[in-house]
């Protein structure tokens, strides 16, 4: 199994490499990269490894920025000394989150999880394809049960304007501007919604087409969205995502 390590501390990277070899002698570490820039360049020039071990705080910023610069198709196990990034990590291909110093038993458990997931999706590939192709009327979420004060209320999906992530929370805003806190990640919510109506415009926002009021050009070939209910911050679509967004709007 080919494994890539993204870690800016050489002693930590070497310790992880040895720990992986102790778990499974067939593991081959294809490279050790210490920065966002190095990782992005390598991933764009080489086939994806089977698995990536990725530190979060690198010498040139948080490793989440790698996902904004290039496509990562393989699973990722994040390694960090901090527990504050776990929610964001699981929005970026993460199958596990290991706290440093990494214990051998935790590493072995993470690798076993990877193997079980690989076996499951290999054995159930056709089921996965069928799930992706199932009709909207039978597969997509129609309502969200949310809490307001001491009560629970049901919000129809068509009445939702957008979802957004802020700090460690995910919020839902309806057409009336009411905000509700959800206990799911944006990635989990995205999988439950009809992509004919909802689109993940960037890492932070998942928007209903009916909430888009204006689309403006933005520097460096990006787009700027204006939505209703209005927001104080800008919703920017990256240059890499502009073409896909336009195709979605024209469907």
UniProtKB/TrEMBL annotation:
Residues 144-251 form the HTH LytTR-type domain. PROSITE patterns: HTH_LYTTR (PS50930), RESPONSE_REGULATORY (PS50110). This is DNA-binding response regulator. One of its GO terms (molecular function) is phosphorelay response regulator activity. It comes from Paraflavitalea soli. Pfam families: LytTR (PF04397), Response_reg (PF00072). Residues 2-115 form the Response regulatory domain. The modification 4-aspartylphosphate is found at residue 55. InterPro entries: CheY-like_superfamily, LytR-like, LytTR_DNA-bd_dom, Sig_transdc_resp-reg_receiver.
């Amino acid at each position: 199994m080919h494994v890539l390590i993204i870690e800016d501390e050489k002693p930590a990277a070497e310790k992880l490499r040895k720990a992986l070899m102790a778990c499974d002698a067939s593991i081959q570490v294809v490279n050790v990269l210490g920065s966002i820039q190095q990782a992005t360049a390598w991933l764009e020039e080489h086939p994806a490894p089977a698995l990536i071990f990725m530190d979060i705080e690198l010498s040139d910023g948080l490793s989440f920025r790698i996902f904004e610069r290039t496509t990562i198709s393989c699973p990722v196990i994040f390694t960090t000394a901090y527990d504050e990034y776990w929610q964001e990590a699981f929005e970026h291909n993460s199958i596990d989150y290991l706290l440093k110093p990494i214990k051998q038993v935790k590493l072995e458990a993470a690798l076993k999880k990877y193997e079980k997931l690989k076996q499951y999706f290999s054995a159930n590939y056709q089921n996965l394809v069928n799930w992706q192709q199932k009709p909207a009327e039978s597969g997509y979420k129609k309502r969200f049960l949310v809490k307001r004060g001491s009560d629970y209320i049901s919000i129809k999906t068509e009445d939702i304007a957008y979802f957004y992530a802020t700090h460690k929370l995910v919020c839902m805003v309806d057409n009336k501007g009411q905000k509700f806190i959800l206990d799911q990640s944006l990635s989990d919510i995205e999988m439950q919604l009809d992509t004919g109506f909802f689109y993940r415009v960037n890492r932070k926002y998942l928007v209903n087409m009916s909430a888009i009021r204006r689309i403006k050009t933005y520097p460096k070939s990006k787009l700027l969205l204006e939505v209703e209910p209005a927001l104080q911050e800008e919703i920017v679509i990256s240059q890499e995502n502009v073409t896909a967004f336009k195709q979605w709007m024209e469907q």
